[in-house]
Design brief:
The complex is a heterodimer of chains A (about 400) and B (about 325). In chain A, helix 3 packs antiparallel against helix 4 and helix 4 runs antiparallel to helix 5. Chain A has three domains: about 130 residues, no CATH class; about 160 residues, Beta Barrel (L,D-transpeptidase catalytic domain-like), CATH 2.40.440.10; about 120 residues, Nuclear Transport Factor 2, Chain: A. By secondary structure, chain A is of the alpha+beta class. Chain A has a six-stranded mixed beta sheet. Chain A has a five-stranded mixed beta sheet with strand order 5-4-3-13-7, covered by helices on one side. Chain A has a four-stranded mixed beta sheet with strand order 8-9-10-12, covered by helices on one side. Chain A is built from eleven helices and 19 strands. Chain B has two domains: about 180 residues, Alpha Horseshoe (Serine Threonine Protein Phosphatase 5, Tetratricopeptide repeat), CATH 1.25.40.10; about 110 residues, Nuclear Transport Factor 2, Chain: A, CATH 3.10.450.50. In chain B, about 50% of the residues lie in helices and about 15% in strands. Chain B contains 13 helices and four strands. In chain B, strands 1-2-3-4 form a four-stranded antiparallel beta sheet, with helices on one face. In chain B, a hairpin with a 2-residue loop joins strand 1 and strand 2. The longest helix of chain B has 23 residues. The radius of gyration of chain B is 31 Å and the shape is rod-shaped. Classes of the chains: A alpha+beta (about 400), B alpha+beta (about 325).
Chain lengths: ~400, ~325
């Protein structure tokens, strides 16, 4: 390559890209026998990174071979076409006045460069080996997979859950909303930050071609969004029209957009109605040990709350609720206390059992935790089974208190 | 500039009949040369130099398909000779098939890595392929703004000192054939044409989903700004070229619109039955029913809006009520 040809890219150069990928466990078929995922062939992004690696090694012939194979299989992968064009122009030996990179004020060129940087940054700034997203404190074994999006970094990770042990098994480039993230209002062209779940799947055949291979709607706005008066709807994970391989990093109206191949791969992993989706404004990856203390503290707290309720120790039970607690139907802490005292008064025994517990550190918030569980409630005169979303906040005195609860029937 | 190879084998190998034919070729007597070669080849069908010269004559006669076959047969029978690959590549490139041209040149270089003509031609092919790749890189969701790259690609091919330059160091140099056959831009390059949508449909074409989505996105946002009484936002949807109906002039119209957005205490604008069609590469026509209500007025009107692609986003260039 001519010196200085790719100054912006070279400044991000990281040696040993392939090694880095291998260390992340992301470049290869990922797991041994425990992995239920198909091994899969070389993914387009891996091919692209191989080519970039070759360019950095000064091997433009190898880069050209790699990119040629890539654009032949994915002709609509525009970033690959751009790099392929650059390598061909370089190899032609002729001056290259037509390079789009000469015009990096062109918004479409900028978008491709943004995508380039997002993909390359994953190599140097991806999750360190042996770490897990700190947003997931505990995931019930019922969820085989969870989806975690690092919104500012245009990246979506699939976490595999094997008996409570998490492992990142897939990661994808993803496009988010034009104005970034932190959705507040309908039409603000932002992607929400929060914990959601996939509510369904609509195959592409039932959708406009714009959505590609299909769409997974999310339950935005969730209980916490409603606490904050956030509006809007129709936040989906979806694919792309057949005319393109992916969209630029900031392109949607709020949705998270994947390539059709990646979206299709998710079909084998996502369970509509269940699979959690973490949309994070600032995803951090920590060693599992670093999260154990907070997780254990919260799980103990939840268990104590359950025991107090089950033993009809109403005042102790109520002490778990924060002063600004509200129910979804408008009761404040005082109303709630009166109500619970009255209800519990007439009961001789109550039995509450919790299972399928998930605990998330809530993205975009300080000291907020979402615990979700299935609650089996049985008393003298009433039996019910619901899925509960319970938001816990660490108060100034360091004690975790419940600030919001919402039940949905199963 | 793509270079034809003029001779396949060193001169010492050429038979007298072939030398005669090459002389006729040099004088411009293509039919005479072809006749001479055909007669010779009927008795000596495997003579590589004769077959190669015959390919060149067919090029001069503009019998391109036969020339392609002649050189392709040679590459099959004499894969060690680089020149037939080279000439095959030039013919593929003329047809705009740069991928095949590249493959042929790479085959020539596989046996003769120092073959200068093939290197030079391959450079030109890479430039052409680069242009096609750039085209695809910049292909947009809506419309196609990559045309300028295609043009520069064509210019690059046409700008070189035109004509076939015989590359063989020995043998009878082929007289330059009509330079136009190479100098003329090949009809839109095949690789580019394959992915770049035609930029100028003549009239409004039927609804495409991408267009409909784009129109719906922008007009929904426009209606929302209007409903929110956000005059700055609302006016931002109008293109610079927008001329209000009625001749108030842009400034007068803007002032009036600001006033009308400010006056009611609430406004609701809903767009129904939207239909989008494409006028040309940069314009969409959108018909819809506009359901307007405020504290004082309820109004339902059929509207037509022309959207223009300005700086990558759609803006309203015309707005008419019907």
């Amino acid at each position: 390559m001519q010196a200085g040809r790719y100054p912006a890219w070279r400044s991000r150069a990281q040696a040993g890209m392939r090694c880095a990928l291998a260390a992340l466990g992301l470049a290869m078929p990922l797991l041994g026998a425990a992995n239920e995922l198909p091994a899969g062939t070389a993914k387009p992004e891996d091919q692209l990174l191989e080519a970039i690696d070759a360019l950095r090694d000064g091997d433009s012939a190898a880069a050209m071979r790699e990119l040629r194979a890539l654009v032949e299989s994915e002709p609509n992968f525009r970033l690959a076409q751009l790099l392929y064009g650059e390598v061909l122009a370089e190899r032609s030996g002729a001056p290259n006045p037509a390079s789009p990179l000469m015009d990096d004020q062109d918004p479409h060129v900028r978008e491709l460069l943004d995508e380039f940087h997002a993909r390359v940054a994953e190599i140097s700034g991806g999750p360190p080996p042996g770490t897990l997203p700190s947003a997931i404190l505990h995931l019930s074994p019922g969820h085989k997979y969870a989806i975690v999006a690092d919104l500012p970094r245009s990246r979506v990770y699939v976490m595999q859950n094997t008996g409570g042990q998490l492992l990142p098994v897939r990661d994808y480039y993803a496009s988010i909303a034009r104005n970034g993230f932190g959705k507040q209002n309908s039409g603000d062209l932002r992607t929400p930050v929060g914990i959601y779940r996939v509510t369904g799947f609509t195959p592409g055949i039932n959708l406009p071609p714009f959505y590609g291979a299909g769409a997974y709607p999310l339950n935005y706005p969730n209980a916490w969004d409603r606490v904050h008066g956030r509006t809007g709807s129709g936040i989906w994970l979806h694919g792309v029209p057949s005319t393109t391989y992916v969209r630029p990093p900031r392109a949607s109206e709020g949705c998270v957009v994947l390539s059709n191949a990646d979206l299709t791969e998710l079909k084998t992993l996502i369970v509509p109605g269940m699979t959690p989706v973490v949309l994070s404004d600032k995803l951090s990856w920590l060693p599992p040990d670093a999260m154990a203390k907070q997780r254990d503290e919260l799980m103990k707290r939840i268990e104590t709350w359950r025991r107090k309720w089950s033993s009809l120790d109403t005042e102790a039970y109520l002490s778990f609720y924060g002063n600004d607690f509200h129910t979804d139907d408008g009761m404040n802490k005082t109303d709630f206390a009166i109500y619970k005292r009255r209800v519990n008064q007439g009961k001789h025994h109550v039995q509450v059992q919790l299972h399928d517990l998930d605990v998330f550190s809530y993205p975009g918030e300080q000291n907020l935790v979402l615990a979700e569980f299935t609650q089996e409630y049985r008393s003298d005169n009433y039996t019910t089974s619901t899925r509960k979303e319970q938001y816990w906040r660490r108060e100034a005195d360091g004690v975790w208190k419940i600030v919001r609860e919402e039940n949905r029937t199963l | 500039m793509l270079l034809f190879a003029g001779a396949a084998v060193p001169a010492l190998a050429a038979a007298p009949a072939v030398k005669e034919a090459q002389a006729l070729l040099a004088q411009g007597d293509y039919n005479g040369a072809l006749d001479r070669l055909d007669r010779y080849l009927s008795s000596t069908p495997q003579d590589a130099e004769a077959r190669f010269s015959r390919g060149l004559v067919l090029v001069k006669l503009n019998r391109t398909d036969e020339a392609v076959k002649a050189f392709a047969d040679l590459t099959r029978d004499y894969p060690q000779l680089p020149e037939p690959y080279n000439n095959l590549a030039v013919l593929y490139a003329q047809k705009g098939d740069y991928e095949k041209a590249r493959d042929a040149l790479e085959a020539a270089l596989a046996t003769h890595p120092a073959y200068a003509t093939a290197h030079e031609n391959l450079g030109d092919i890479y430039s052409a392929l680069a242009g096609a790749a750039y085209n695809r890189a910049l292909q947009l969701d809506q419309g196609n703004q990559a045309v300028r790259y295609k043009l520069s690609l064509i210019n690059q091919l046409g700008n070189g000192p035109g004509g076939y330059v015989p590359a063989g160091t020995t043998g009878v140099p082929a007289a330059p054939p009509k330079t136009e056959s190479i100098g003329t831009p090949p009809a839109p390059a095949a690789p580019a044409a394959a992915s770049a949508p035609a930029p100028e449909p003549a009239a409004a074409t039927p609804e495409s989903d991408a267009d409909a989505q784009a129109a719906s996105d922008v007009l929904s946002a426009w209606a929302k700004a209007w409903s929110n009484k956000d005059a700055d936002g609302y006016l931002a949807f109008y293109a610079e070229e927008f001329k209000p109906e009625g001749g108030d002039g842009r400034a007068g119209w803007e002032a009036q619109r600001r006033e009308r957005l400010a006056k009611p205490s609430h406004i609701s604008v809903r767009l129904l039955a939207m239909h989008t069609s494409r006028i040309d590469a940069h314009r969409l026509r959108v018909d819809f029913i506009q359901d307007y209500s405020s504290d004082t007025v309820n109004d339902r009107a059929k509207k037509t809006v022309e959207l223009t692609d300005s700086d990558g986003s759609w803006k309203i260039a015309r707005e008419t009520a019907r």
